[in-house]
Amino acid sequence: MQPAPLPSLSIEALQEHHDRTSFGSGVIELDRYLYSQAGQDAKRRVAAPFVLLNKKTIISYYTLSAYGIRLADLPAEAIKRMPKYPVLPATLLGRLAVSQDRQGQKLGQFMLIDALRRSLENTHEIGSIGVVVNAYNESAERFYLHHEFTPLPGQTRKLFLAMATIKKLFPRLPEHGQ
Questions:
Q1: Is the pTM of this model over 0.85?
Q2: Distance (Å, whole) CA 147 – CA 65
Q3: Quick one: which H or E segment has residue 9?
Q4: What are phi and psi of 57, to 5 degrees?
Q5: pLDDT by residue (tens digit) across 65-118?
Q6: Rounded CA gap, 113 and 115, in Å?
């Protein structure tokens, strides 16, 4: 499942010339991150921020980074299929936000699909057993649950989606080594 092309919209890695000041999602922590931290995280390679632009205006963004997850923290059904290493590599979808004036237009879903596709494609270079998210609130948690994420046992609003499940969303992507 590829994100549907939207007229006049493009997804790019965050660059210095992108105007972050006009973005407002209604979640102060997500807005503050984009304004003051995202550029530094990109430069330091702590996180890879991606922005959805309508011409030159940021209307959504998300971040991806490497993450280590303890085997014991995974859902029981996922543990069965994993190697028995104490810590396994995963991808962290650290933040995902949509501008308030564009909410309700399925842009969050569009960006999630793009983030999952990038995460899957990157497993050809860097291993990852799945994507982990920290939902900021109940609404975000419902969003991720609707998209097949599974709560991590004993961790409030932290969810997981196995790479094997993500692969099923993108059957046309080549397998590793092809």
A1: yes
A2: 20
A3: strand 9-13
A4: -100, 130
A5: 999 999 999 988 888 888 899 999 999 999 999 999 999 889 999 999 999 999
A6: 5
Q: What is residue 56's DSSP assignment?
A: T
What is the token pair recorded at 133? 């998210």
The position carrying tokens 């396994």 is 88
- Helix and strand numbers (H, E) in the chain are 6, 7
Angle 41-122-117 from CA coordinates, rounded to 5°: 95
Beta pairing, strands 130-134 & 87-98: parallel
Sequence-distant (≥ 6) Cβ neighbours of residue 40 within 8 angstroms: 46
Strands 9-13 and 158-162: unpaired
Query: Beta strand 87-98 with 57-70: parallel, antiparallel or unpaired?
Result: antiparallel
What are the structural domains of the chain? Answer: 9-169 (3.40.630.30)
CB atoms within 10 A of CB 97: 27
- Find, among 140, 122, 139, the residue nearest to 176 by Cα: 122
The span from the CA of 120 to the CA of 2, in Å, is 12
**Distance between CA atoms of 123 and 5, rounded to whole angstroms?**
24
